[in-house]
C-alpha cells in the first residue's frame, strides 16, 4: 500500500549524542487547513521617483495589508486592511481605502445587522516621506489627479459624526445655522471633501452626486442636488489655484458623466432636467462650458438634426475630449422602446420569436440585453465650429478612438452584413475610415477576418488577415493596400497551430515611426521584424531563431505612442530550458543585448515614471512570484517581498521536463512533478493532468489553494504523489485519438522509468480536459480512478447547443475551434460519433468522479448528466458533483474548499487505499443537503 509521504527515516535518526548538531525539524505535508493563510500580492506599484515600492500582501481569506518598502533606506512599513491603492503623481503620498475587519463584518452579519449598521470603509493617507498615516472614517470613494500631486477628493457617509479639521467651508457653516431635513443618500448625494495634502486644509461641498479632477488638477468639477438658497442645485467648478467656486449651471435635475479637457479649460456633462421620476423616456442633454462662459450651454439634445430622427443623447456614454481639446466625443442612441405600464402582469405575453434571419441569436440577445439597452453610437462635436457629426450608426455600430483622439480620422467597423453566420466565431467585418469634419467615410476593407488598428499618426491602418495569413497595411495618403508579409523566409503565423482553421498571427510590437520613416514591427515565432512601409521590406531586429530564443517587446511607458525609444526593453524566453530574461537595444533597430537571464518566469515589469528603476516578479515551482527591484542594467537585482516564508516548513516538490514519442512517432514533451524527498527506488502513485500544452509553464508557481477546476500540484507532491502533465498535439477529426496518442504513450513512458506504481494511477481534467478524460476511460483501463470536470460526452447533442454565457452557437466549437472535428455534423457524422464518450460507455471500467454545475455557461451541464445516466444505468461507479448556481469553474471559496476535499479524498481512496468518505459510500440525500456534507471518513 502506498501511503502519504511521511517524515523520512533520515530526519528521524538521532544525532548519536552529537549535542552540537541542531535538531532538524521535520517538514510537514500540506493540508486543507493551510489555504487561508497562504498569501498573495494582487497589487504592486512603484512611485514615480523610484524611491518606494507599494504592494498589498493579502491572505487568501482574511485581513491583508499594504506594505511600503523604501528602495533607498530599505525601511518597511505597513497598514492593515488596505485596498484600492493609488500613488500621487509627486511621489509623496499613497492613498487607499481601509476595509473593516473581516471577522467583525461576519459577526455582525450573523447578528442580522442592517446595512447602515455595518462598519464602513476608512480612507488612509500615507505620507511616503514621514512614514505616517492619517485615517478618515466613513469614506465612500476617492479620486486624485492623474498628472499632479498635492490634492485629494473623497466622499463620506455620516458626515455629521466626523470632525473635518482645518475646513474653510462657508457653505457648511451656513448649513449649521438651521436644522437640515435633507438626508444624504445615493439619490441626494453625499458630502465631498477636497483636501490640500500640502497644507492639510479641507474644502467641503454638500450633497455631491458626481465629481472629477482634470489630469493636471487645475479644477475640481462636481454636480450637486444643492443645499439651500446659498448653494443651488447644479454643476460647479472649483479652481484649485485661486480657490474660486464657479456655478457653471444652475438647474434642478440629474447631472452625470462629468469630464474635462486635459488643460481644464473646458467641461462637459450630461444633464437630465426632467424632475418627474416616473417619466419613462428620459431626454438627456449634452452641456459644455469653457473658461469665460457665464453658464454651460446645451450643444445637443432631443431636438438634434445631426443624427437619425428620434435619436437622443446617450446618458450612458462618458463624454471625452480629445487630448488637444479640439473635439468632444459623446454618445447617441435611438429613442428606447418602453412598456405599456397600464397592462397588468397577467395581460403581458412573454414570447420569444426565433427568426431564421436574426442577426443575433435570441440567446445572444438575452446575454447582451442590458448592454443593448445602454448601447450608444459615437458622435463628435468639433469645438472650433460647434459642428456635430454622427459617426456611428445601426449599420456601422463600432467606431474606434485612439488614445489621444486628436486626428480627424477614425476607424469604423461593421460586422452586421455577416452577423448571421453564427457557426463562425471569427466574424468578418467591413472597415471604413471616417472623416470627423464632415462624416464622409471610405471603405478600405471588406469581409476582413482581422482586427484593424490606426497607426499613431493616422498615416496607416494595419491588420492581420486570417484568410490570407499575412500582415497588411493601408496607406491613407496613397489610398493603397500593401501586403507586408509572405511567409516565405519565416512564418508570421503560429506554425504549430493544429486547429482546422486559418492560423493566428504571433502579433505585432507596434510602430517605430509612421510619419517620416514608417516602420511597423511584427513577430514571427522567435523574432521581431521592422517593416519599412516605404519600400515594403522587412528587417530582422532581434535574432533569436538560431538558438530558439523568443523576443517580445515590453512597453514600460503607457504614454509612449512609439516603441524602441528611451528605456526600451525586450523580454526573452529560451525555448530549450524555458528560462527567461531581459535585453536592451544599443540602438532602436539593432539586436538587443542580453543583460539578464534566470531559470525563472519573469513577469510584470513596472518602471518608475521619472527614474530608472523598475519592479518585476520572479517565480518557479518552488518559489512564489515575489517582487524584485532593479535599475535598467539589472546588475543589482534585490528581492523586496517574502510573501510566504512558511513554505519552507512544508514538503513541496520539484518539476522537470520529460521527452517521449507518441505512438505515431511525434516527439513530445511534458512536465513531471516529483515529491521533495523523491526516491527513485520507491513506487509512487501518479496523477495525470493535462490541457492542451503546458511545457512552457515549467517555471510557473502554484500556491496551495482550494481548487476552481484543476488539481493543485504542490498539494499532491507534498502528499507523496508524482504528477505527469503531457503536451498534446491534435489531428483534425480525431481529438479523442489524438489525446490517446499523446497521453497514454506519455504515461507508459513514465511507468517505464520504474518509480510509478502502474496500478495506482489517476487521471483528471476539466472542460476540454474533462472531455478527454471521459473519452480515455472508454479506451483504456490504465487508470485506477478518473475525474472529469464539465465534460462533453455527446458531441451530436453538444454540437446543436448554446454556450449560455455568451449565447453563441456551439457549432464553431466543433467545426474549427478547440474540438477540431473540421466539419459539420452532417459532413463528418462518423467523427462526431467516434469521438463521443457516451456511445462507448459500456467499455468503461474506471470509477469516475464528475463535477458539472447547473449554471455552466461553457459546457451545458446536461452533457455531464448524459454520461452520468449512462454509467449509472450500466451500474458503473460514478459520482456527479453539482454546485448549485456555479458556472464552468467554481468561484465561491466555500465550494472550492469543498471540492478540493472531495477530489483528494476520492483519489486518496483509490490510489492510496485510504478509507472512503461517507459521501462516496452512502451518497448525500437531498434532505441532508446543506446540513450534512458527509466528508467524514468511514471506518
Automatic annotation (TrEMBL):
InterPro entries: 6-blade_b-propeller_TolB-like (IPR011042), AB_hydrolase_fold (IPR029058), Peptidase_S9_cat (IPR001375)
GO molecular function annotations of the record: aminopeptidase activity; serine-type endopeptidase activity
Keywords: Aminopeptidase, Hydrolase, Protease
Pfam families from the UniProt entry: Peptidase_S9
An example Gene Ontology biological process: proteolysis
Superkingdom: Bacteria
Domain Peptidase S9 prolyl oligopeptidase catalytic: residue ranges: 734-913
Protein name: Dipeptidyl aminopeptidase/acylaminoacyl peptidase
Amino acid at each position: 500500500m502506498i501511503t502519504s509521504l511521511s517524515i523520512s527515516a533520515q530526519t528521524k535518526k538521532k544525532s548519536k549524542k552529537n549535542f552540537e548538531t541542531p535538531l532538524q525539524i521535520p517538514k510537514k505535508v500540506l493540508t486543507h487547513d493551510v489555504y487561508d493563510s497562504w498569501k498573495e500580492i494582487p497589487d504592486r506599484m512603484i512611485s514615480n521617483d523610484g524611491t518606494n515600492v507599494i504592494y498589498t500582501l493579502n491572505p487568501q481569506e482574511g485581513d491583508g495589508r499594504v506594505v511600503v518598502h523604501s528602495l533607498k533606506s530599505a525601511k518597511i512599513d505597513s497598514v492593515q486592511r488596505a485596498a484600492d491603492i493609488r500613488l500621487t503623481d509627486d511621489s509623496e503620498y499613497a492613498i487607499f481605502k481601509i476595509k473593516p475587519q473581516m471577522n467583525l463584518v461576519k459577526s455582525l452579519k450573523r447578528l442580522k445587522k442592517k446595512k447602515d449598521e455595518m462598519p464602513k470603509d476608512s480612507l488612509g493617507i500615507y505620507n511616503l516621506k514621514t512614514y505616517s498615516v492619517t485615517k478618515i472614517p466613513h469614506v465612500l470613494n476617492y479620486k486624485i489627479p492623474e498628472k499632479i500631486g498635492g490634492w485629494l477628493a473623497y466622499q463620506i457617509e455620516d458626515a455629521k459624526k466626523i470632525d473635518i479639521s482645518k475646513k474653510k467651508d462657508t457653505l457648511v457653516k451656513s448649513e449649521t445655522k438651521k436644522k437640515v431635513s435633507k438626508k444624504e443618500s445615493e439619490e441626494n448625494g453625499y458630502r465631498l471633501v477636497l483636501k490640500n495634502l500640502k497644507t492639510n486644509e479641507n474644502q467641503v461641498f454638500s450633497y455631491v452626486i458626481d465629481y472629477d479632477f482634470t489630469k493636471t488638477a487645475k479644477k475640481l468639477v462636481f454636480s450637486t442636488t444643492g443645499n439651500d438658497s446659498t448653494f443651488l442645485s447644479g454643476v460647479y467648478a472649483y479652481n484649485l489655484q485661486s480657490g474660486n467656486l464657479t456655478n457653471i449651471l444652475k438647474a434642478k435635475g440629474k447631472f452625470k458623466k462629468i469630464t474635462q479637457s486635459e488643460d481644464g479649460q473646458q467641461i462637459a456633462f450630461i444633464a437630465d432636467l426632467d424632475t418627474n421620476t416616473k417619466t419613462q423616456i428620459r431626454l438627456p442633454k449634452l452641456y459644455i462650458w469653457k473658461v469665460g462662459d457665464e453658464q454651460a450651454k446645451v450643444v445637443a439634445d432631443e431636438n438634434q438634426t445631426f443624427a437619425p430622427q428620434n435619436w437622443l443623447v446617450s446618458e450612458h456614454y462618458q463624454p471625452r475630449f480629445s487630448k488637444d481639446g479640439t473635439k468632444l466625443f459623446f454618445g447617441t442612441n435611438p429613442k428606447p422602446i418602453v412598456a405599456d405600464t397600464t397592462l397588468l402582469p397577467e395581460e403581458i405575453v412573454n414570447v420569444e420569436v426565433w427568426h431564421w434571419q436574426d442577426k443575433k441569436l435570441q440567446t445572444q440577445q438575452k446575454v447582451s440585453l442590458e448592454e443593448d439597452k445602454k448601447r450608444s453610437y459615437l458622435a463628435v462635436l468639433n469645438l472650433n465650429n460647434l459642428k456635430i457629426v454622427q459617426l456611428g450608426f445601426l449599420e456601422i455600430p463600432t467606431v474606434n478612438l485612439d488614445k489621444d483622439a486628436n486626428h480627424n480620422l477614425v476607424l469604423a467597423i461593421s460586422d452586421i452584413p455577416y452577423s448571421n453566420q453564427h457557426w463562425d466565431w471569427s466574424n468578418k467585418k467591413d472597415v471604413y475610415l471616417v472623416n470627423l469634419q464632415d462624416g464622409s467615410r471610405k471603405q478600405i476593407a471588406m469581409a476582413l477576418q482581422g482586427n484593424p488598428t490606426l497607426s499613431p499618426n493616422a498615416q496607416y491602418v494595419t491588420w492581420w488577415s486570417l484568410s490570407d495569413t499575412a500582415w497588411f497595411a493601408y496607406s491613407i495618403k496613397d489610398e493603397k493596400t500593401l501586403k507586408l508579409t509572405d511567409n516565405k523566409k519565416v512564418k508570421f503565423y503560429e506554425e504549430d497551430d493544429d486547429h482546422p482553421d486559418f492560423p493566428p498571427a504571433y502579433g505585432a510590437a507596434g510602430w517605430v515611426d509612421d510619419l517620416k520613416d514608417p516602420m511597423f514591427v511584427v513577430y514571427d515565432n522567435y523574432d521581431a521584424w521592422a517593416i519599412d512601409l516605404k519600400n515594403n521590406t522587412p528587417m530582422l531586429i532581434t535574432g533569436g531563431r538560431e538558438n530558439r530564443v523568443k523576443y517580445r517587446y515590453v512597453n514600460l511607458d503607457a504614454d509612449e505612442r512609439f516603441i524602441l525609444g528611451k528605456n526600451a526593453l525586450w523580454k526573452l524566453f529560451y525555448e530549450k530550458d524555458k528560462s527567461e530574461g531581459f535585453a536592451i537595444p544599443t540602438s532602436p533597430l539593432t539586436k538587443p543585448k542580453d543583460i539578464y537571464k534566470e531559470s525563472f518566469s519573469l513577469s510584470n515589469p513596472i518602471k518608475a515614471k521619472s527614474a530608472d528603476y523598475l519592479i518585476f516578479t520572479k517565480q518557479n515551482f518552488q518559489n512564489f512570484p515575489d517582487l524584485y527591484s532593479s535599475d535598467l542594467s539589472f546588475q543589482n537585482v534585490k528581492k523586496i517581498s517574502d510573501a510566504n516564508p512558511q513554505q519552507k516548513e512544508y514538503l513541496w516538490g520539484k518539476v522537470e521536463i520529460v521527452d517521449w514519442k507518441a505512438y505515431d512517432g511525434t516527439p513530445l514533451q511534458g512536465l513531471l512533478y516529483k515529491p521533495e524527498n523523491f526516491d527513485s527506488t520507491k513506487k509512487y502513485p501518479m496523477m495525470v493532468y493535462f490541457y492542451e500544452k503546458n511545457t512552457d509553464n515549467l517555471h510557473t508557481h502554484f500556491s496551495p489553494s482550494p481548487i476552481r477546476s484543476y488539481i493543485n500540484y504542490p498539494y499532491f507532491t507534498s502528499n507523496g504523489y508524482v504528477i505527469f502533465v503531457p503536451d498534446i498535439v491534435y489531428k483534425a477529426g480525431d481529438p479523442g485519438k489524438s489525446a490517446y496518442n499523446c497521453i497514454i504513450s506519455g504515461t507508459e513512458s513514465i511507468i517505464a522509468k520504474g518509480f510509478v506504481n502502474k496500478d495506482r494511477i489517476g487521471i483528471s481534467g476539466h472542460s476540454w480536459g474533462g472531455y478527454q478524460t471521459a473519452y480515455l476511460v472508454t479506451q483504456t483501463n490504465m487508470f485506477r480512478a478518473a475525474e472529469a470536470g464539465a465534460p462533453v460526452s455527446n458531441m451530436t447533442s453538444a454540437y446543436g447547443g448554446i454556450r449560455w454565457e455568451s449565447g453563441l452557437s456551439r457549432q464553431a466549437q466543433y467545426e474549427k475551434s478547440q474540438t477540431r472535428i473540421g466539419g459539420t455534423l452532417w459532413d463528418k457524422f462518423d467523427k462526431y460519433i467516434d469521438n463521443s464518450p457516451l456511445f462507448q460507455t459500456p467499455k468503461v471500467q474506471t470509477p469516475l468522479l464528475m463535477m458539472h454545475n447547473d449554471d455552466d455557461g461553457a459546457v451545458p451541464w446536461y452533457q455531464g448528466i448524459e454520461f452520468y445516466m449512462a454509467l449509472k444505468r450500466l451500474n458503473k461507479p460514478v459520482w456527479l458533483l453539482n454546485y448549485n448556481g456555479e458556472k464552468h469553474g467554481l468561484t465561491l471559496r466555500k465550494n472550492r474548499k469543498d471540492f478540493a476535499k472531495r477530489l483528494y479524498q476520492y483519489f486518496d481512496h483509490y490510489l492510496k487505499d485510504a478509507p472512503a468518505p461517507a459521501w462516496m459510500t452512502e451518497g448525500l440525500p437531498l434532505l441532508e443537503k446543506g446540513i450534512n456534507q458527509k466528508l467524514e471518513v468511514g471506518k
